[in-house]
Write a structure and sequence with these properties.
Layout lengths: L1 E2 L5 E2 L11 H10 L5 E4 L3 H16 L4 E5 L13 H10 L3 H20 L1 H16 L10 H18 L1
Helix pairs in contact: 4-5
Length: 160
Amino acid sequence: MTRTSAGTINCSGPAMPSRMPTEVMDERIAKLPKRPIILPCYDRRGCFFAEVLGYELTKAGHDVRGRYTLPWEYFVARGRPPHVETWIAENSKNVWAKSAHYVAGAMAAVSQWTGVVAVIALLALISRALRLPTHTHPDGGARAEQAGRRTWRRRRSSSA
């Protein structure tokens, strides 16, 4: 019999041979701690032997609560390892988060030479340059919106 980290007792392996005399079995049962026992079983044969063992344990004065046919559900799951958590966190970032991280790193590197104010001004200049091809007119595209409204009005008035 070996004790696991969860406080359960494993009655299999070389410590518990499959065939043993009744006297040896009675000695081993007497060594078990007096606390509630749930017997796991997977199939008919295992459940039969769990029932027989439950009978023997009850005869010896132990508190047998019954058999459990789904022992894989009777454990507390551990958390993920740290390297898996970091990998999931890294791969769950979207394009915007990755680009923001890259820009922040570049900003931190450049700000050591020029200062934070100059880096902010540089980022403002870069953002304006990126928008330049889409908004070339000084009124910010208001003229294009007005032209679109006029066209829509003409179509509507001509169809009526």
